[in-house]
Amino acid sequence: MSVLCGSAAGWLLDHSSFLRAAHPCSPAEAKDDQRVEHQSLRAYSFRLEFFQLFQPHLPSLPGAAELKEAPETNQQRPKAKKRKRRYTTLNQGELDALEYHSKISGLIKDGSMSLIQEGLNKGFLHPLSGKKENYSKSIPADLDDCCRLAELCEMVKQLHSLNEHELPTLLVTEEVKRLSSSDLELLSHITENSTDWTTIITLMGQNYLMPPKSSFLLSDISCLQPLLQSNRKYDVIVLDPPWQNKSVKRSKRYSHLSSWQIKQIPIPELAAPDCLVVTWVTNRQKHLQFVKDDLFPHWSVEVLAEWHWVKITRAGEFVFPLDSIHKKPYEVLVLGRVRRSTDSLSREAESDAFALPYHKIIVSVPCMLHSYKPPLAEVLQEFVKPEAKCLELFARNLQPGWTSWGNEVLKFQHIDYFISPETES
């Protein structure tokens, strides 16, 4: 379970425990009931070092060094004046961000404190002088090199039959313990693990863990046909789009999509009636307003809530100062429902049964791997019907019971991110 505690304000999550529970080992080789019970508790463990965040980030203000030397520099070079004004004059986007922050910072601070205190009481969070978990210090240095999945997606564009024929789902069953299908098959089909246990799949010579009852499609946005041809309708759709911004352009860490491209994602074709749509948004007000005023209406999604993910250290401190100008310790989620039903009475009954609170916070220690979001399955379950079908778009990992799509959908499932039960024991 990922939820450690909850309150009227929101939830405190333990992401690392969720990952362990998500990858149970099969007890198939057990010879008696006692061993079955013991084996079923064994699981692949996500490396704890990726959650060992003990100290907050305290970045110096951009341009602090330049401003400190400004008097001397101004006498020598006129350019220094421009650099100084750059950090003393806020543009409209920064002013909008400050105004937004002033409205929600109090809610975030007050809501987080009670959850953090509960985490300290439970021993999940602890002061910097307290205990630190023992963990393996050997972090594979070449994981990014062996997980270049986005490049592999170009292969699927060579499959001319993709637009002409419906492609069956590749099933991992109890009889198939390790799937080693052809690379092109994995890139052109939905692959599904129908078992109750984690299985290993091999792609381009690399091994990836696939949680129980999960399925995925590895492709880019131009090759969504297998997902659409499956005729599955989802009750929950979570998106984490690669938003365009300056830092992404500079780092070249991953490709980004324009607002126009994001609008082309076929949410109406994938969504069941009253589907809950959750979109991760950066702290840029331009993106937030686009989602609320343009994107959701384009998809016939009614905006119902705005939640925040608050990132803390293991000591219970915000990862950045709450009022930091440089970066904020929170990210935004916009939630809404697809509204296409003409039966107003049934819609009202559905809304009453699964009403969304307008504001909630999700507090967790973030994974130190770039853009690895916390699991939402458990916090969303009270707002959707039982056995809801769930889909994550632009995913970089898999979840039990969910379908995931993206051009790096297996990235954080690489077996080197995990410690096997044999190694632990």
Automatic annotation (TrEMBL):
Cellular component terms per the entry's GO annotation: cytosol; nucleus
UniProt biased composition (Basic residues): 78-87
Keywords (A to Z) from UniProt: Methyltransferase, Transferase
Record keyword Lyase present: no
Domain of life: Eukaryota
InterPro entries the UniProt entry points to: DNA_methylase_N6_adenine_CS, MT-A70-like, SAM-dependent_MTases_sf
Chain positions covered by the region annotation Disordered: 62-88
Gene Ontology biological process terms, A to Z: methylation
Gene Ontology MF, one: site-specific DNA-methyltransferase (adenine-specific) activity
Claim: Methyltransferase is one of the keywords in the record: yes
SUPFAM superfamilies: S-adenosyl-L-methionine-dependent methyltransferases (SSF53335)
Family: Belongs to the MT-A70-like family.
Protein name from the UniProt record: N(6)-adenine-specific DNA methyltransferase METTL4 isoform X1
